Amino acid sequence: MVDVANVPGAAAPASAADSSSKRVALKRVLGPAHVWGLGVGIVLVGEFMGWNFAVGKGGAIAALTACWLAGILYTCVAMIDSEVTSTVAAAGGQYAQAKHIIGPLAAFNVGLYLVMAYTMLEVSNAIVTGDLIQAFAANMGLAGEVDKRAYMTLTIVFLAWLNYRGVLATLTLNYIITAIAFAAILALFVAVNPLTPGATVMHDQLLTGLPYGGLGILAAMHFGLWFYLGIEGTTQAAEEVRSPARSLPLGTLTGIMTLLIAATLTWYIGTGLMPWEYLGQAITPLYDAARLTGSLPLELFLFVGTLFATLASANGCINDASRAWFAMGRDRYMPVWFGAVHPRYHTPYRSILFFVPIAILFAVSTPLDQTITLSILSGLLGYTIMAIGVMMFRRKWPLGSIARGYVHPLHPLPAILLLGLCAVTYLAVFLGYGTQLLAMMAFYIFASAWFVLHRYKYCRRGDQFTMPWPKPKGY
Description:
Distance between the termini: 32 Å
CATH topology: Amino acid/polyamine transporter I
Largest sheet: none
CATH architecture: Up-down Bundle
CATH class: Mainly Alpha
Shape: globular
Strand content: under 5%
Structural class: mainly alpha
Order of helices and strands: HHHHHHHHHHHHHHHHHH
Number of domains: 1
């Protein structure tokens, strides 16, 4: 078990009064580059797969509109996260924020949203890894020798082992392979001759307006989020960052800028090389785009880039889901057994191992669009709580009452924009996946009832709040 007394700035509980009692804690070893690699690494896979389902929902123009609207939504998320997380620098990210600002029930639900969002994103990455390797083998004439389920399982097991062994090596690897994946997008963009339209990209022939009218833009918002989903994961490693006040805002805000550029380039490439009817259902659209250029080196580079993007994302998802589950176990929101830290590797190893069989089961049995939808829905619920939380945070602890590592501008406009765009996206998801939306809402309501009626009695309320803040305004 990790002791909150080991967290700088935290109020030590009574049990930590004996300084001779030394317990294993998470290590503060990460810098801004690791935070960038964690956030962008989780998300960049959205440029290699999944975003294109928005094209199928409403056409290429609708997908671009959804891409930019989702970019506004996630810019608000990054701004809010940068302020609150640089102040509440604890494992669990948004879970820890909700615990300190709103209350236990909200924190429990946010923790579940995080775990579900990252686990389903990890599953989606494993599915794409299997499909990519199978498609590449088929192109090389080896289709009969590849079972994609084996590669799905191998991906999850290998990355869980890597996370088990240590966070510094894990996120250093994420930084490297994410940079290579981003370079693959840039290389493909240069290869399609963007300065000479019509030579390679054929937007004048392929763009078809809005085949389903304005309703297509609304429907496209569902998968438009996939360009950016997961950037909020930078907060999950807050307790392992050397300088939270500097590293978390810098890594998060540069991450969202990177993704806005990558998303726009990705749309330009895909819609200029493939008709929207095909693009809207492709599993690996950028790899397909590289094949259409006729360049074997570029095809190989995009195969590597797509593979690295899926591995970086799955790697970061394991990191984030395990930190959220670990934090909930440490606070006894879940069995305390999950709140253990490995004595040698200083990782939440039980929480890492717990999700391995769950992820494998979903990967081999659930379609890709379903796992993406489950991840998006859980993320949306978390963003809704985040917008409410930051308004409560500013009201309870006004500027100047506590030290903040970063203060996001224009408050409360980002929170209001975030709530409005979340409402639009809920409607978009309901149009295409209403059953899944209602089923997930029912699941979270049932889980909330279980927490209130059963689990909360095991929590030590006095030990949950670790920030040395003054009483909130109006208390």
